[in-house]
Write a structure and sequence with these properties.
There is one protein chain. This protein has 5 helices and no strands. By secondary structure, the protein is mainly α. The chain has a domain at 39-117: Cytochrome Bc1 Complex, Chain D, domain 2, CATH 1.10.760.10. Bound molecules: heme C. Residues 52-53, 55-57, 66-68, 70, 75, 78, 87, 90-91, 95-97, 110 line the site of heme C.
């Protein structure tokens, strides 16, 4: 029979260290979980984007001299690490600046499309106003 009393102090220290690492990793991954969206959302969003946003932000999301890009390093420099719901709140409050405004569901789909164009992977859960995930491309996607 194994006797726990024979664990050396050094070994116990190693076990404690490993446990702390695991806890740290778990805490970090729950805070940094990527926002999730479905391909259905992104496809619906692509349509709305082309109808409502592309005139200014361009059909490839590259932006123009007076309009910021919505994909790529500049965009991710601004929005990377922030909640997808924050991006939605901004779009819902401010975009498009004039003209016909799509409803909130349609704008949520546009945000899903923007996530896809920033190389975030789609998943099985829909992006919605209560989803806690952040904006960042999947590791290795850039
Ligand atoms: C009439 C032109 C126009 C249209 C149409 C338009 N935008 Fe914009 N958008 C802008 C301008 C100009 C800015 C910069 C605003 C500022 O700095 O205050 C901007 C900023 C943004 C930003 C912030 C970018 C950043 O780097 O912070 C997002 C996100 C955005 N728009 C999304 C959209 C979406 C989504 C749509 C369609 C639903 C849309 N926009 C439609 C002109 C437009």
């Amino acid at each position: 029979m194994m006797r726990m009393g024979h664990t050396t102090p050094r070994r116990r220290l190693a076990i404690v260290a490993v446990c702390l690492l695991c806890l740290g990793a778990a805490a970090q991954s729950s805070q940094r979980a990527l926002a999730s969206y479905t391909t259905t959302q992104a496809e619906a969003g692509a349509q709305t984007y082309q109808d409502v946003c592309a005139s200014c932000h361009k059909s490839d999301l590259a932006g123009a001299s007076d309009t910021p890009p919505l994909a790529g390093d500049t965009f991710l420099g601004m929005w990377g690490g922030r909640a997808a719901t924050e991006l939605f709140d901004y779009v819902n409050a401010a975009m498009p600046p004039a003209g016909r405004k799509p409803d909130a569901d349609a704008l949520m789909d546009v945000v899903a499309y923007i996530l896809r164009k920033n190389k975030m992977p789609s998943g099985s859960s829909r992006l919605d106003a209560t989803a806690p995930g952040i904006i960042a491309p999947a590791p290795g996607a850039r």
